Amino acid sequence: MPTQRRMRFVHGQLAWMLATIVALTLLGSLSYELFFVLSLIGLLIVTELTAPVNITPAWRRRLLWLIGLGLVGFAVIVVRRIVEILPPEVMPF
């Protein structure tokens, strides 16, 4: 049973990422940053939709590290975009 739930999670995440690639390609907006952000959103959604009611298995607790790294990557992308938007005279370096 635990393997079946784990595989359901993996299949859900892979389906989300594949749908993201197809949608971004059809819209002509495929970029690494956008794919990363949409995959992170998918990870958060699939994690919540497949969450067990009573017990949290060990593999789901390890997902917190992956989600944390994803949020750090998201913060880096946001900061890079903000720096691109700001005029050069505003930046102290």
UniProtKB/TrEMBL annotation:
Keywords: Membrane, Transmembrane, Transmembrane helix. InterPro entries: DUF8044 (IPR058357). The chain crosses the membrane at residues 9-28, 34-51, 63-83. This is Uncharacterized protein. It comes from Natronococcus occultus SP4. The lineage of its organism: Archaea, Methanobacteriati, Methanobacteriota, Stenosarchaea group, Halobacteria.
